Amino acid sequence: MQFAISFALLCCAIAATLAYPMPDDMTMKATPPPKYPLNLEGGGGGQRGDGFGFAVQGHEKVWTSDNGRHEIGLNGGYAQRLGGPYGNSEPNWKVGTTYTYRFPNF
Predict the structure, then answer these.
(1) Model pLDDT, residue 103
(2) What SS3 state is found at 9?
(3) Most CB atoms closer than 10 Å: which of 27, 51, 62, 95?
């Protein structure tokens, strides 16, 4: 009798599991590529007695068209030489924009 009750409960559990509706699409969605916030580059160096020069520049895409062919970006930069025989140089600031057009593949 105890075996029959255990078997009946096991059958009910299996039936309940099979009766549960499963989602239609079990595949994972594609992961979008990572978006890096800002493209920065920098460097510096110098020789003994010549001072130390350094520069930093960056680029950021601010707009892309729906079809991906048109793109507008902003550029900026800063450079300066510190020390050396002539002292510190004036800071050099750069600001600009870029426009990119990608021709279609024929």
Answers:
(1) 92
(2) helix
(3) 51
Domain range for residue 86? 28-101
Let me know if residue 9 belongs to a domain. Answer: no
* Within-domain flag for 56: yes
Sequence-distant (6+) residues with CB within 8 A of 65 are: 71
37 located within any domain: yes
Q: How many domains does the chain have?
A: 1
CB 55 within 8 A of CB 42: yes
Q: Please give the model's pTM, rounded to 2 decimal places.
A: 0.57
- Report how far Cα 82 is from the mean position of its chain's Cα atoms: 34
Flag whether 42 is in a domain.
Answer: yes
Mean pLDDT by 10 residues, the chain (106 residues): 81 74 70 78 87 92 91 95 87 95 86
